[in-house]
């Protein structure tokens, strides 16, 4: 994904390819992908939806509800489905960086097996590099370094090592 906007478009198309949703539900589901510390504001969500509407990737309809006010529900168009399928088959270094990988993995099923392996292997290489840098920083930490910075590095290394082991299992499974 070349930009945050393209990552957001990919995730929204992925969600809408599963079922039509209204804005609040889209935001809620995006929170499960991005996590609680990178909440998606409505001031980011709605302009992105508007751009996607103008590009013909999605369409909106008003749904009346007897118990509450009417809602605008978004649905993917054929053009949007084609765009989503094209994005699932696009593999670049951004697809194994932190945010790009999380979003891609959330919608891994429609991605071809060959490209899933490429993305997993790229993520694996990226984390191995990160783990080596962290190990080096921990080995040469000067005396008196902030203990919390050192603990953060240790925690980051532990997290990277766990994800590396998980990726190795995923790659092995995917290759079968």
TrEMBL record:
Keywords, in A-Z order: Methyltransferase, Transferase
GO biological process, one term: methylation
Domain of life of the native organism: Bacteria
Pfam families, per the entry: PadR
InterPro entries the UniProt entry points to: Metal_resp_DNA-bind_regulator, Tscrpt_reg_PadR_N, WH-like_DNA-bd_sf, WH_DNA-bd_sf
GO molecular function, one term: methyltransferase activity
All residue ranges annotated as the Transcription regulator PadR N-terminal domain in the record: 12-85
Protein name according to UniProt: tRNA (Guanine-N7-)-methyltransferase
């Amino acid at each position: 994904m070349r930009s945050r906007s393209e990552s957001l478009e990919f995730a929204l198309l992925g969600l809408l390819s599963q079922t039509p949703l209204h804005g609040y539900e889209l935001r809620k589901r995006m929170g499960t992908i991005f996590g609680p510390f990178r909440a998606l504001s409505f001031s980011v969500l709605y302009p992105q939806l508007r751009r996607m509407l103008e590009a013909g990737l999605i369409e909106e309809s008003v749904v009346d509800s007897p118990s509450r006010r009417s809602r605008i529900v978004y649905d993917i168009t054929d053009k949007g489905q084609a765009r989503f399928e094209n994005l699932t088959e696009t593999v670049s270094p951004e697809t194994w960086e932190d945010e790009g990988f999380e979003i891609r993995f959330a919608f891994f099923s429609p991605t071809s097996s060959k490209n899933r392996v490429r993305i997993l292997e790229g993520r694996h290489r990226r984390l191995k590099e990160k783990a080596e840098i962290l190990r080096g920083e921990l080995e040469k930490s000067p005396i008196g370094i902030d203990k919390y910075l050192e603990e953060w590095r240790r925690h980051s290394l532990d997290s990277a090592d766990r994800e590396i082991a998980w990726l190795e299992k995923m790659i092995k499974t995917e290759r079968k």
